[in-house]
Amino acid sequence: GTLLRDLQVVSSRGETAWLSNTDLEGELDDLVRSYDAGRAQRGFVSVDRAERALTRNASAKVVVDWLALRL
After folding, report:
1. Per residue in 56-70, is it b (16+ CB within 10 Å) or e — as a string?
2. Which residues span the domain enclosing 57?
């Protein structure tokens, strides 16, 4: 969740003080080329779906595997 949020901050050229993962600022600058705003938004939707699946007692391994493929 926080990495996707930070990618949104970097892609919108927000203040670095807004980053949750300030230690990853350089890596985020590199990643933002691959994660445009639309892809990051789809990532948020996928994380939300994964959280809901876990609350319905879905297998954590299956959910993590699914999420890794979605991101």
Report:
1. eeeeeeebeebbeee
2. 2-70
What is the spatial distance between Cα 45 and Cα 3, in angstroms, rounded to a whole number? 14
**pTM for the full predicted model:** 0.69
Task: Note the residue count of the chain.
Answer: 71
Question: Residue 33: phi, psi to the nearest 5?
Answer: -65, -30
Neighbours of 50 (CB within 10 A): 19
- Which are the contacts of 2, defined by CB distance < 8 A and separation ≥ 6? 20, 21
Number of compact structural domains in the chain: 1
pLDDT digits (tens, 9 = 90+) for 3-53: 888 988 888 888 889 999 999 999 998 888 887 778 888 888 999 999 999
